[in-house]
Amino acid sequence: MEPRKDLLDIASLTLEEIEFVLKTAGPFKELFTKSIKKVPPLRGKTVLTLFYEPSTRTRSSFEIAAKRVSADVTNFAVSSSSVVKGESILDTIDTLQAMKCDYVVVRHGAAGVPNMIAKHTKASVLNAGDGFHAHPTQALLDAFTLRETFGSLTGKKILIVGDILHSRVARSVGRICEKLGMQVGVLGPGSLIPKSRPSFMRMFHSFEDALDWKPDTVYLLRVQLERQKDQFFPSLNEYHNVYGLTDERFRRLESEGTWVMHPGPVNRGVELGDAVMNYERTLINQQVENGIAVRMAALYWLKPQTT
Ligand code: CP
Fold first, then answer.
1. 291 lines ligand 1 (CB under 6 A)
2. CA separation for the pair 171, 191 (Å, rounded)
3. Cβ pair 52, 109 in contact under 8 A
4. Domain formed by 15-135+290-301, architecture
5. Which atom of ligand 1 is least distant from the CA of 135?
6. Domain limits, CATH 3.40.50.1370, in the chain
């Protein structure tokens, strides 16, 4: 497979490229059971993580992944950098470019920032989430997890529940599932479902109607209160009752053997409750583990112009 310079979204990836990353991630995951989990392909390369928004999973997963392919990793702490003195993103990138980084992992609150940085630097840029736009490695790790669970995904059904409007995860996960042959349903408050959603997203108006569709997996999105400028639903309690996995809905999922996914971080008592976290068909921890293997594969695949 020809390498790309950057990984910016799912929409621009071909099916072959997606399959290549998923296939490459498999042997990387097998390393996790070995006493030495490190392989040499990025020896001598430098990975810089540049997070303008908070992150637990993505940032630490990229750091572990980069170290496991033997890269050196520098975490750029935006809050204690000259960014707080007003330095622009491009000036920051120019400064970092002078340090000859090979890969830049960037998360930013504004859509399009990773694309802008990619045009401005010879380093490979990996989008770790930009505004409402895209979160490609989340989608790749979710696809890997679904493949691990179901084998072939053709015809399988995924129901994505929650704040579709503000969710880069919903856009990227929906897109990759469609590319891999899945049926994609969406459910959420009317105010949080985009009017211009892609035609492959089948919309449901109640959780019960959506469960009658018999999804193989229910993918709960985090309620992103920090991105909502207006009040889109009356209260978190109300959200849980209408769009959350209540005890009653959870019992139905359990009896039907439906799998549950969530990108994290979880708002307990809002999207789901404690019982769901302990459910044997909850894939949340596998998603986190698989994130490392998939990010190793992405780093392995990309080729900076610096080399
Ligand atoms: N899933 C995800 O992007 O989590 P973080 O915000 O913790 O990175």
1. no
2. 16
3. yes
4. 3-Layer(aba) Sandwich (3.40)
5. 3
6. 15-135+290-301, 136-288
Q: Which residues contact 32 (CB under 8 A, 6 or more apart)?
A: 289, 292, 293
Q: Per-residue pLDDT for 307 more than 60?
A: no
> Does ligand 1 lie within 6 Å of residue 174's CB atom?
no
pLDDT in tens, 195-213: 888 999 999 999 999 999 9
pTM attached to this predicted model:
0.95
Task: Report the half-sphere exposure of 263 (CA within 13 A, side-chain side).
Answer: 28
Which atom of ligand 1 is least distant from the CA of 58? Answer: 8
Ligand 1 center from residue 134 Cα (angstroms): 12
Residue 4 CA to residue 10 CA, distance in Å, equals 13
Q: What is the pLDDT of residue 14?
A: 98
Q: How far is the CA of 93 from the centre of ligand 1 (A)?
A: 23
CA 55–ligand 1 middle distance (angstroms): 5
Report the relative pairing of strands 183-187 and 157-161 from DSSP bridges. Answer: parallel
- CB 224 less than 6 A from any atom of ligand 1: no
- pLDDT for 230 equals 65
CB-based burial label for 163 (10 Å; 0-12, 13-18, 19+): buried
The CATH architecture that domain 136-288 belongs to is: 3-Layer(aba) Sandwich (3.40)
The alpha carbon of 212 and the centre of ligand 1 are apart by a number of angstroms equal to 30
263 CB near ligand 1 (under 6 Å):
yes
Tell me which residue of 304, 267, 294 sits closest to 68, measured CA to CA. 294
User: What does the pLDDT read at residue 228?
Assistant: 60
Token pair recorded at residue 232 = 């889109």
Please say whether the beta carbons of 9 and 127 come within 8 A. yes
Closest CA to 306 of 48, 8, 20: 48
